[in-house]
Specification:
This protein is of the alpha+beta class. It is about 25% helix and about 35% strand. It has helices at about 10-25, 70-80, 130-140, 145-150; strands spanning about 30-35, 45-55, 60-70, 85-90, 100-105, 110-115, 120-125, 140, 155. It starts with 7 loop residues before the first helix and ends in a 9-residue tail after the last strand.
Length: about 160
């Protein structure tokens, strides 16, 4: 499924959030991503995805990934008068920049297109209390062999990876 998350960088961070949650003990089958509609997200956001985990009480929002665009750095630049522009090379080789660097090296001539731009900001936020509650609930289960003997025992069991955190 390509093109669901519009920005490649936002998609990268969303994948990392998912991998983090699974690594610390959240059941991957009980995680979902939900895109917020334009009227639900902040005015500076061009795209927002929230991460929800299923608990016994229902879906609980525990994290979010927001494409803040250039909103923050543009406002800082305007307020302080300091340039927050970065310099980068165009990835497709097209010339969309205002400056060029030409260097002569032996018999070869290299021309690099350089562009100045304000970087986009991707924000990933977490509700660690909610995540911890999810870890505990996803770790809680009843032993079947005890239930067959008429004994009710509940167990919290986690992989040892979580204990090193």
């Amino acid at each position: 499924m390509e093109g669901i998350i519009l920005d490649e960088n936002l998609g990268f961070f969303a994948a990392r959030v998912f991998m983090f949650l699974v690594k610390i003990g959240i059941d991957s089958a009980r995680v979902r991503f939900r895109q917020l509609a334009a009227h639900e997200r902040a005015h500076y956001s061009s795209e927002t995805w929230v991460v929800e985990i299923m608990l016994s009480s229902g879906w609980l929002l525990c994290a979010g990934c927001v494409d803040r665009g250039t909103y923050d750095l543009t406002r800082h630049e305007k307020a302080t008068g300091i340039s927050f522009k970065a310099t980068g090379f165009t990835s497709d080789g097209t010339c969309r920049s205002s400056s060029f660097s030409i260097s002569h090296h032996s018999r070869l001539t290299f021309i690099s297109a350089v562009r100045k731009f304000i970087p986009r900001v991707i924000e990933a936020g977490f509700g660690f209390g909610r995540i911890l509650f999810g870890i505990l609930e996803h770790s809680y289960w009843n032993r079947q062999e005890d239930a067959q003997r008429g004994v009710s025992r509940s167990v919290i069991h986690r992989d040892k990876t979580i204990y090193s955190l």
